[in-house]
Amino acid sequence: MKLTYLKASAALAGILVPLAASGVTWAQDAVNLRMTIWSANEAHLAMFNEIAAGFKETHPNVTVTFEPIPFENYTTTLTTQIAGGNPPDLAWILETTAADFVNSGALAPLTDAFAATEGYDLEDVTEQATALWTRDGQLYAYPFSTSPFAIFVNNDLVTAAGATAPAELIANGEWTWENAFATAKAVADGGQADGLIVRDFNYQTWQNLASIWNGWGASPWSEDGKTCAFTDAPMVEALTRIHEAIFAEGAMPGPGENVDFFAGNAAMTITQISRASLLPKDDPFDWDLVPLPEGPIGAYAVVGQAGVGAFANRPNTQVAVEFLAYMTNPENSQKLAQFFPPARASLLNADTLAATNPLLSAEQLETVVIAGISTGTVLPGHTNFAQIQQTVRSGLDAMWVPDADVPAVLQSVCDSVGPLLAR
Amino acid sequence: MSLATEKETRPFWTIARRDAAAGYLFIAPQLIGIVIFVLIPLGLVFWYSLHEWNVLANSFNYVGAANYQMLLADPSLPQVLTASAIFSAGLVVLNLSLALLLAVLLDQKLKGIVVFRTLFFSPVVVSLVAWTIVWSFLLQNNGGINGMLSAFGIEGPNWLRTPTTAMISVVVVQVFKNVGLNMILFLAALQGVPKELYEAARVDGAGAFKQFRRITLPLISPTILLTSIITIVGSLQVFAQIAVLTQGGPGMSTTVLVYYLYQQAFQFHFFGYGSTLSILLFVIVAVLTFAQWQLRKRVVFYEN
Lengths: 423, 304
What we know:
The complex is a heterodimer. By secondary structure, chain A is of the alpha/beta class. Helices cover 43% and strands 15% of the residues of chain A. The two termini of chain A are 46 Å apart. Chain B is mainly alpha-helical. Chain B folds into 2 domains: 2-48, no CATH class; 70-299, MetI-like (MetI-like fold, Orthogonal Bundle). Chain B contains 13 helices and 2 strands. In chain B, helix 8 packs across helix 10. The A-B interface holds A 3, 76, 79-80, 82-83, 100-101, 104-106, 203-204, 254-258, 313, 384, 386-387, 390, 393-395, 397-398, 400-401 and B 36, 53-58, 137, 139-143, 158-162, 247-252, 263, 266-269, 271.
């Protein structure tokens, strides 16, 4: 049936297009841009549609539509669209796959277009935020969201277990991983709730453990990305400690257990601040938001990033880049900052953020958001990330059992992922 | 010469031609569907398998047999094929024996037997993903099954997180999902066995087991062949259960061929190599089906 429609519409187009080209010029100029995103949040969509409407005022022929794709399969769906010859004009890109997109040549360069846009003030966008999205001095995607990882605390559970609340530990200068695990263990020992959850980790998305192991100075591969670093001392120590917290202390729920912090079932969770929207409105608990504890190397911060890029070599690439310049200009960046922590230095202050994040206190914004963004390391990413992620995940599975030999497992992880990294 | 002129004067639309044309017209809708959705994609997949297709860089280069050489050298492939074989063998054995057992048990004239037949058939009509998601909750370490076991003082394994139990879990979830279909086919076959054969056997002094072995099994053997082909081909195409329950883990213990193909093509973006893997799958299914048809001549009994 579809094919009949296709044929019919192709035939119709065959008649109409030459007609339009000869007589009615506006039909030829009409541009429809499509941007794939992974948020289906009504408020987010309303804001994006408002920005698109603003662009239409100066470009009446351009219509932008936003296409939400579920987060779990986002990159897979996006690449399948590209493979099927139906790529979007613009797309959100995850930090982990940034290298794939930036290095592939699939995206249009942005720096010159942004610099040429009046009032854009490219200098204001911090270099730290753009590093991941830049190749050979050209920006290929704009980091519209730089969101620090932090710990949400359920103080009701912590107090009930007679443990020391993180806020108190921070006040005493004792907010370390050892004490954080102790608090988590105390709550878990009570048997009413679990201790600490690394949200979305699920013993699969191992890169989220960077929110812990960065405190040991660990990283999965060398700085140039060519050598496996899972067997380096910091990583072995960090994962040994995490393994101990899970299996010996019971401070973290084990594999195959689904526990939700926001349903009130755990003392603490590591996640990004945008998850504050999940805090229960009915029957709320006494919650707190604190920065990540100090690890053996001292204080540290980890951020997740999301970029937005325009695909190159498309009929409307130029208009898409223009829209991107409009969407991320100083004025619209302020709108975006309601939901997505900004990459512009001028917006990174407690006053601006307070206006848009009513749930968070000035102190939380200062210690978690601003400090996190200005000092944070981005989650690990790599070219060919999907295959590397899967290979490491598959190797690490052997570690998520009580009597695992952590160094031996990590050696086998490096054995299998080493050749992929060296490529 | 005269014959030729005679032929020329004959009308083109003979009765035979009319019938043939009508026949082709009747099968046309199905045939067009198969050509567009099966044969053309099959040809394209073969064509893709000769190329290196980088989706992001938008490059599509002819590489000849390189993907096939990669297939032979792929260090993961033995593991994947072993997992597929274990899954298929476990599924076929468990599914067919359970289906036959249920069919024999339900082939009785008892009050309310229809309720049981419906009960066992109902999973077949449940959405596959919904069915699997419910099972994923039951199979969690702190899920329903271990909760039930702990009520009896048994500490259950972490089903989906230990290689052996993970494989058993995906097989059992799949068996429970589809056993009803084979059960119905067996039930129909059982009811087609002439009752007088059993009477004759009884008169000759054959016991229940002997009757089953000598009469029932031979007479339903065409159905056993049919169900085993359907089940084996279906088992090689298992995807949703793996994707929902284990994502191929732990390690690669439940990464069956179709899931591996999906990873290579859609997650790692190696569409060329993914196509090569699907050609491999096609060959495996073709060979197995052919072998089963051959086997038919030797083990399947036809009444006439």
